[in-house]
């Protein structure tokens, strides 16, 4: 899956999609009006994922498959001009067409600017939300590289059920705590299913504000117990290495 840049104007997006549909119609012999209707009712991504709705002949299917492999249609999926995040549904609207039919988990991060606009949405990892697959440092590295003061975590459940697992919750808490120490706010973790989504912030699955206080308290306690004089004395008594 490719990075999704969302700062594209609606007019340009419409023009690019129209060009793709014209090419598909020319290549496969499918009526363009039929293709346009399907895309307008669903999405460009849906068109390639549910070719059975087009009732294609075997030869047409092969041509459509070849076009999909050679085109950059995936970069058009829900590419929009920057918008302020007013709730989880704003993010869901952007990412759902790209994630809801995937057969494995994909972790993405939405990078926001100081105004709350989405700068871009980037892939972090594929597989499952575990320590071996998804590492918070990979997420925050992208935020730092793009000077994003806040982020939203996103991943899909191939089972279709967006209910968060224990691993999902623990991973989110780790990210929130890491973000607090880096001064990068984790606003939400949204899980996409085939018929719905789960917002950990909106549903109260993880208390993001409590995690802010907790991580700061942990850091303060570590600093409080840090004895600089003891450290200096240990350093003075340590034999020199030759």
TrEMBL record:
Q: Which PROSITE patterns match?
A: MPN, UPF0758
- Keyword set, alphabetical order: Hydrolase, Metal-binding, Metalloprotease, Protease, Zinc
GO molecular function, a single term: metallopeptidase activity
Task: Please name the InterPro entries in this protein's record.
Answer: MPN (IPR037518), RadC_JAB (IPR025657), UPF0758 (IPR001405), UPF0758_CS (IPR020891)
Q: Which residues form a coiled coil?
A: none
UniProt-listed GO biological process terms: proteolysis
Question: What family name appears in the similarity comment?
Answer: Belongs to the UPF0758 family.
Can you name this protein? JAB domain-containing protein
Q: State the species of origin.
A: Aminipila butyrica
């Amino acid at each position: 899956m490719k990075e999704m840049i969302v700062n594209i104007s609606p007019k340009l997006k419409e023009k690019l999609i129209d060009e793709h549909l014209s090419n598909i119609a020319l290549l496969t012999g499918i009526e363009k009006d039929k293709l346009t209707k399907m895309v307008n009712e669903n999405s460009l991504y849906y068109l390639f994922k549910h070719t059975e709705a087009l009732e294609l002949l075997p030869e047409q299917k092969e041509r459509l498959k070849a076009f999909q492999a050679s085109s950059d249609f995936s970069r058009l999926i829900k590419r929009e001009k920057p918008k302020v995040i007013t709730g989880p549904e704003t993010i869901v609207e952007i990412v759902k067409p790209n994630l809801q039919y995937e057969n494995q988990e994909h972790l993405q991060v939405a990078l926001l600017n100081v105004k709350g606009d989405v700068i871009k949405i980037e892939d972090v990892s594929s597989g499952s939300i575990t320590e071996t697959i998804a590492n918070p440092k990979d997420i925050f590295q992208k935020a730092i590289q793009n000077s994003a003061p806040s982020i939203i975590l996103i991943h899909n459940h191939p089972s279709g059920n967006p209910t968060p697992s224990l691993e999902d919750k623990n991973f989110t808490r780790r990210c929130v705590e890491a973000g607090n120490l880096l001064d990068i706010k984790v606003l939400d973790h949204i899980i996409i299913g085939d018929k719905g989504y789960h917002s950990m912030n909106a549903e109260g699955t993880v208390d993001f504000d409590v995690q802010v206080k907790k991580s700061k308290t942990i850091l303060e306690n570590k600093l409080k117990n840090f004895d600089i004089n003891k450290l200096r004395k240990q350093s003075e008594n340590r034999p020199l290495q030759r």
